[in-house]
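COMPLEX REQUEST
Ligand: manganese (II) ion
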Amino acid sequence: MAHVVKKMTPSEILAMKKELSYAISDKTPPGAVFTAKLVECTVTAYNSGKVLFQGKQAEETAQKFAGQVSQAKVKSKNTVKPPHSYAPPDNVASLSIIGSDEVGTGDYFGPMTVAAAYVSASQLPLIKELGVRDSKNLNDKQIIQIAKELIHTLPYSLLVLPNEKYNELQQKGMTQGKIKALLHNRALQNVRSKIPNEKLDGILVDQFCEPGVYFNYLTKEKNLLKEGIYFATKGESVHLAVAAASILARYSFLKEMDKLGSRFHTVLPKGAGPHVDVKAAELVEKYGEGVFDTATKKHFANTQKALNLLKKKRI
Ligand code: MN
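STATUS: Structure written out below.
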């Protein structure tokens, strides 16, 4: 099997881990920072800074994350594929685009939300005027305020996958990547059907997996949007439609977290850090283990950590 070894800096490894978060494996070999299982490549980053890429796509994946692959270390055929053929054109920012993005995939509590929104070329200045930009640079208050404007301005679709449903799909063996792909495609489809007469220049998905993997997830979908589709990482900064979708998805996530929290008479924390384990343990103690099904993404490591906290408490 092809394999490539690269030396990467800690910050490069961290950035790669973030980008591959959807594919991170629960099991990590000794001395490793993380293992990510992509469809045709397994990536293992070690504390030493060495990163091992294994599988059919080893070379391409190494190329993507670690730049120029030194030929001496390439054990397979030495052709390097271009990034992918779904990269948006250079002038994409000025085109009429439906964009999509998701929120909540890394948060232990709360649903996954996916939004798609259409921004025509003529609407770009207005959308910019409303303050739409990368939602990572906006606080919750700004998100809510801008989202409320967008809802009245843009054709959009907003999908919420409640925790019960998420856990059910996950337990049936569906990966988070596949769940994302299904919801993105559906949201994009919904928006597309709202604007049958628009002259659309394309569709831009905030890339969460390789395009080939995305289409593999969707082989059984009857309504697959494939024509004119582009994928770009950091899509929010590539086209305002993705930035708008991201704001709508985040707005929806915030609302759902509020609702879910009030069901349990508390404020649910975001993320998946230790504070989340503490809150989960607290809720399980009060309401029983059903909380894992109704309020969390049960397959996250936080579930076991919360149970461990409870065990310790009982000793
Ligand atoms: Mn995204």
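REMARKS: Strands lie at 3-7, 32-37, 42-46, 50-54, 97-103, 112-119, 156-161, 202-206, 229-232. The longest strand covers residues 112-119.
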